[in-house]
Structures are given as C-alpha cells and as structure tokens.
C-alpha cells in the first residue's frame, strides 16, 4: 500500500501541466486494465473510487487487529493525499464516514471530558464535510442539483443499480431466487424501460453509458454488492448469507463495539462496490471469530 501511494504521487506529478510526462502516463495506461491515471491519480487500484475500500475496508481493520503504528500513520496520509491530489469524490465521503465510525469505536463515553472532545470532533468533522461540499465542484454540484443530475458518474452508478432493481418489482420469482450467476444483463434488460422512465421523469442526467444499458453487454455490472448479489442469487440467498454471518459471529461471542462498528463500515462501503472476491468481508468473518476474541497474545502473534 505504501508502494501504491508513491505510485499515485508519481501519477499526480506526471499529470502536472508544466511537466506532462507522457511516457509515465502511457506506461500506466498500458499497465492498468481501466485507465484513469491519464486524468487523475489512480494509484494501483482498478479505479480511484476503490481507494476507500482499501483504506477503510482492509487497512483500518488490520490496524484494529495489530495496532501497528505504521499502518495507523499510512491510513490518514493516504486518505489526505488522495483528497489533496483530486483522486475522486468518493474518498472524501468515505473518509468522513470512516472517521465518524472510528471515533465511535475509539471514544470512551464513560469519561465526560472525552465525550466532550468527541462532540467537538463531530463539529470539526461536520465543518470539514461542509467545506468539502462548498470547495469540491463535484460535491457542490451533487448538493445543488441532486444525485441524479449533479454528477455524471454518480447518476450512472445509480442507474446501474436501478435498472435490475426495477425488474425485481415485476418478477417475484427471480427476485426471490435470482437470475443466476453472470446474468445481471438479463435483469437490466428487463427493468431498463421502467427504470429509464422513472429516471428521466425525476430529472436524471442522460449519458451514453446509460443509453447503452438498453441492450446491455454480458458483463454488465451494478456497482453495488446488494444489487448484484440479490439479482444473481435472489433475496433468499442474500438473507441466508447475512444470517449465517450474524449467527457465526454471535456463536463466537464476537459482537464487541469494535466489531459492530467494523460491520457497519463494511455495510456502507459495499453500497457502491460489488466485487465478491475482495477480501474485506472474508477478513471480517475470519478476524472477529478467531483473532480479535482470543486475547492479546494471539493478536500480537500476527
């Protein structure tokens, strides 16, 4: 992750107008499957919007597990650097949410002084969020024009989720049992017309990406693990998986305040992230039932 951050700095320098290092930009354009590095720092992630998943879905929990100071220093530096270099708007939102949850996990509410400090920190966090909305053009546009029309990327993400979810309303059997793995495109095709009508009626911004979903490719995605999982495997499987996780943690007496905060943070992060293979959820399932609840010696043994 340190290497990824340094690469992001290199990409940022290469993008500077007075430098415009085309060989560097061309290298990353060929090395990365999805190339955003020609516009803004991408680090070594699939796209800049995934920065928060790595920082707060992986590094922050690993810091909770190990209390490694190097990781504790890297997380805020990485987040602040990504924001300062203009890597995206989601990292701003993710940082605000993750900071709030980290405060909830950390604060000793039995102390009045510490609780008062927490209230002050919330004020600073709110002021910082408001400042970001005012200063950042994309956040300002979202606040002014709404989620559907304020930003092209956000509106496209919403429609990617909306189209298959619209098909849920009219196909109860598929909603309960799913369209099958890899068949999101079928649900998108079924729900497109109704979703597009609702989207246009509510002032959604048109785009070629949204237009293209009228006849979606086979590898169509939703950008939300909830929309993807339910569309592919059905509501019953989703609820069964969720119940298994909750019972598994409860059986191992894993419901500490830290683990509850961790679970809530993951639930937030996966709203706009759909990779089943990403290791944030397996890390949670493994850690809360083994490492975090077997004493300090086991934690240090990491």
Task: Provide a descriptive summary of the structure in words.
This protein is an all-alpha fold and 302 residues long. Helix content is 69%, strand content 0%. The protein has helices at 2-15, 22-31, 51-66, 69-84, 90-106, 112-135, 137-145, 152-170, 172-177, 184-201, 208-212, 225-251, 257-269, 280-289, 296-300. Helix 3 (51-66) runs antiparallel to helix 13 (257-269). The chain starts with a helix and ends with a helix. The model is unreliable at 296-302 (pLDDT under 50).
According to DSSP, the number of beta strands is 0
The shape is globular
What string, H for helix and E for strand, traces the elements in order?
HHHHHHHHHHHHHHH
Name the poorly predicted regions: 296-302
Strand content is: under 5%
Instruction: From the alpha carbons, calculate the radius of gyration and give it in angstroms.
Output: 21 Å
Tally of helical segments = 15
Write down the oligomeric state.
single chain
| Helix vs. strand class | mainly alpha
How would you characterize the largest beta sheet?
none
Between the first and last Cα atoms, what is the distance in angstroms? 18 Å
Name the helicity range.
55-70%
- The overall pLDDT average reads 88
């Amino acid at each position: 992750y340190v290497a990824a951050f340094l690469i992001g700095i290199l990409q940022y320098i290469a993008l500077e107008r007075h430098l415009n290092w085309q060989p560097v930009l061309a290298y990353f354009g060929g090395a990365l499957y999805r190339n955003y590095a020609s516009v803004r720092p991408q680090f070594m992630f699939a796209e800049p919007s995934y920065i928060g998943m790595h920082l707060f879905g992986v590094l922050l929990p690993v810091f909770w597990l190990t209390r490694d100071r190097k990781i504790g220093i890297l997380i805020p530096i990485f987040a602040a650097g990504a924001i300062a270099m203009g890597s995206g708007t989601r990292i701003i939102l993710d940082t605000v949410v993750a900071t709030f949850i980290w405060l909830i996990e950390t604060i000793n509410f039995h102390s009045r002084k510490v609780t008062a400090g927490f209230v002050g920190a919330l004020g600073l966090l709110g002021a910082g969020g408001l400042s970001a909305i005012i200063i950042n053009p994309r956040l300002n546009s979202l606040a002014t024009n709404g989620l559907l029309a304020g930003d092209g990327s956000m509106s496209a993400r919403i429609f990617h989720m909306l189209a298959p979810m619209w098909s849920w309303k009219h196909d109860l059997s598929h909603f309960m049992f799913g369209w099958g793995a890899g068949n999101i495109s079928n649900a998108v095709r079924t729900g497109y017309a109704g979703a597009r009508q609702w989207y246009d009626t509510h002032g959604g911004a048109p785009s070629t990406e949204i237009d293209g979903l009228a006849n979606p490719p086979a590898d169509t995605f939703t950008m939300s693990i909830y929309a993807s999982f339910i569309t592919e495997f059905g509501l019953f499987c989703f609820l069964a998986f969720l119940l298994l996780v909750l019972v598994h943690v409860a059986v191992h007496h894993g419901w500490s305040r830290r683990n509850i905060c961790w679970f809530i943070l993951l639930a937030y992060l996966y709203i706009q992230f759909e990779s089943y293979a990403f290791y944030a959820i397996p890390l949670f399932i493994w850690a809360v039932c083994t490492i975090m609840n077997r004493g300090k010696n086991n934690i240090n043994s990491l």
